[in-house]
UniProtKB/TrEMBL annotation:
The chain crosses the membrane at residues 503-522, 528-551. The keyword Coiled coil does not apply. Residues 99-344 form the ABC1 atypical kinase-like domain. It holds the Pfam family ABC1. PANTHER family: CHAPERONE-ACTIVITY OF BC1 COMPLEX CABC1 -RELATED, PROTEIN ACTIVITY OF BC1 COMPLEX KINASE 7, CHLOROPLASTIC. This is Ubiquinone biosynthesis protein UbiB.
Amino acid sequence: MLWQAIGAVCDLGRLHDIASVLIRYGFGDLVRRIGMAGALERAGRALHWHEPEELARLEPPARLRRALEELGPSFVKLGQILATRVDLFPPEWIAEFSKLQDAAPAIPFAELLPQLTEDLGEPPEAIFPRLEMQALAAASLAQVHRAWLADGTAVILKVRRPGIRPIVEADLRLLARLAEIVEAEAPELRRYRPREVVRHFTLSLRRELDFSAEGRSAERIAAHFADHPEIVVPRIHWPWTGGRLNVQDYVDGIAGRDLAAVDAAGLDRRLLARRGARAVLKMMLEDGFFHADPHPGNVFYLPDNRIAFIDFGMVGRLSEERRYQLAVLLHGLVSHDAEKVAEVLLDWSGGAEIDSETLQPEIDAFADQYHGVPLKNLDLGAMLSDLVAILREHGLTLPPDLALLIKAFIALEGLGRQLDPDFDMAGEATPFLERVLLAHAAPGALVWRGWRALRDTLALVAGLPQDLRQLLRAARRGKLLVQVEVLPLKHFGDRLDRAASRLAISVVTAALIIGSAIVMTVEREPGLPSFGLLGFIAAVIGGIWVLFSIWRGGKG
């Protein structure tokens, strides 16, 4: 507990930076309401509440995006995660979050060299006869350098920025605590699920910091396309790849954004659009493991109309049941079956309270507006966006894996239409959806699901007598307890208890300071000043604990 207290005091500086940036961008009311201002002012840190006129004219989504950019790597990554939550934020917010580019100035290669030598186990020149010290690209977590192996193979070295991990972990601790405070103190923000978003973000960012995990994801997707020579995934060089370094083949192709170069090279845009769409649909609906960020920056076009995917730091996973639900949903949209669509949405709602009597007519009206529209004229991305807007109106949030998938699906259709204005996403998706539905209804799949359900039921029935015996035994011994919690009263009691503890520790700390000061002035006994010094140390520890308890208590 003491180390937690010391850690919290160390994080106060970062907390001050966060509060100051939020205030500067016009979110001072939020800072006050969640207690950040009170905690920092009690810790003796001044906050500047001035709001520049230029920032005051910006819309809230733009102001928040600017604030996230200024707060640094962790918050830029948080914004990128928020950009996937189309179920939580309306389009204008998603558009601003999507502008967050993970770019940063490159640091000198000399600063990378000690860490790179440690990760390689020997100086880089011993492995790479040629290595470019000028970075190809630089982001908040890493930067990339091109090199060549002894056999002439061109590779890239993705090197994690030295010292970035402690900064990220401090930000994650603060975000977790702030999410708890926001849910407790700002009821109107609970619909954005701050704790769930931060938990998902923490898992995603920690995976992204582990470059070996990115390598494993790339190899897994490459294995799924072993029989598809038109799809290229860079090879990972495992002898030199680890948590802080990723060495992989260099992709020499046309960047996804350079359509003029695509035309100059004589590549077939329509074929590229179809191949890219089929590749990502295969990842999503057949393999259940997909590239979650298929934007043009992560795609390269190669000779013979081949496509290379890079950067597997953000990937999505879909269970077989999720894939079936998604297939039912998309097939219901394409075939205008509103009842199927509503059923899936209600399943995804989990325990959320939803008025199905109002949801069903809205889904009916939504599907009816596309009735009779040919598949090639359907904008499936727009359909999904409109559908998610209905979910937001009903307070329904998607599970994170599906939110990520829908965002990737919309990005994929945008990429296809960029290559080919007549790109038919619905037509490309339909065969995959039908295969998923047929596989779910195959005799072997039905037998397996039936056997699994029977096995689970038998296990439940077999354990029921023992559970009943334990319940009755506890009742006979008088140990059967029924606990009723009155949450507002419990919350008030917890606050009162924390306040009393802080007051007691403050009194003891003050007494130690006064007593130690008196003792240290006594010169007759040689040992007494030592006791005074110990008293001062104890007072410092008590003061740290009080600061930590203030931080934990928020406004309380």
